[in-house]
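Table S2 (text version). Query chain:
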Amino acid sequence: MLVIQRRRRRAEDGFTLVELLVTMLIVTVGLLGLAKLQATAVSNTSVSRTRALMTYQAESLAGMIRANKGFWATTGALPTWPGFSVSSAGVASDTGLMVAPTVTNCVNTTGASACTPQQLAYNDMYTWGAQFNDGTASSAFPNASATIVCKPATGTTCAASPTVPHGYDITLSWKQKIVGVNRSTVNSTPSDLTMVMHVQP
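Corresponding structure-token output:
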């Protein structure tokens, strides 16, 4: 009877030191994995937020193009089909927006002083470009760039006064750091991200 009681007491003893260390190791590994998942979730949320903001920027440009069909859908006798780009240093090119005589900035008015479609396009693009990235650190997206390129409805080149309006590709590019899930995806430098929106005037 005495032997049985001693065995029961030994079975009721607490965890050994080894068992405790193993438990702590398992918990630690689990917490590290949870921390990694948290960092990845925060990174993905940041990327999604920036993508949403870029989508709004592209939609803003698309709205300007659709609202000014007199310029973007026909362009009349302009020598070069219009295009526009913004680089990390601000407006890089404004093909077709400025021709002789020099187009001046103009907001839409009525009567004899009404703006021409070309003046409106110039105003729209430069106003948008200055807010998007004017080459300063205070820009909304200081490391981003944007381009508007004509895509012909038929053929390979954008001809003036088309019977079917040409389309435009709005391309926005930016840099953003993304948290790597494992060693093969870790990148210390920001990744290049791009989105393209096609618009038909």
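Notes on Table S2: The first strand starts at residue 84 and ends at 87. The CA atoms of residues 3 and 9 lie 10 Å apart.
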